[in-house]
Amino acid sequence: MDTLSRLERTVAERRAADPSQSYVASLHAKGLPQIARKLGEEGVEAAVATLSGSHDELVGEAADILFHLVVALQARDIPLAAVLAELDRREGRSGIDEKASRSA
């Protein structure tokens, strides 16, 4: 089992835990707006680290984004496999062509 699959499983297990004992459960208890807010905050922090942070800072922020993305996906009942399938579907296509196909 790869790292992202283990993360997805761990987040699923912790989702049902006591919110006072689990960060994942506390996010879910606060609802989708808080989950979305945290994902956005981590995205901004990663963008800042991209411009002015160290290698390690950007790696840490990237890990935070992946973690919070998995939390958000689970909150919407979307398996990580669906995202990976979409990436597979896009593989080998020009990013410009792919984006144009979405706006058409």
Automatic annotation (TrEMBL):
EC annotation from Swiss-Prot or TrEMBL: 3.6.1.31
Organism this protein belongs to: Qipengyuania flava
Record-linked PANTHER family: HISTIDINE BIOSYNTHESIS BIFUNCTIONAL PROTEIN (PTHR42945), HISTIDINE BIOSYNTHESIS BIFUNCTIONAL PROTEIN HISIE (PTHR42945:SF9)
Encoding gene (name): hisE
Cellular component aspect of the GO annotation: cytoplasm
Name listed for the protein in its UniProt record: Phosphoribosyl-ATP pyrophosphatase
NCBIfam families reported in the protein's UniProt record: histidine_hisI, PRK00400.1-3, PRK00400.1-5
Protein family according to the UniProt entry: Belongs to the PRA-PH family.
Catalysed transformations (reactions): 1-(5-phospho-beta-D-ribosyl)-ATP + H2O = 1-(5-phospho-beta-D-ribosyl)-5'-AMP + diphosphate + H(+)
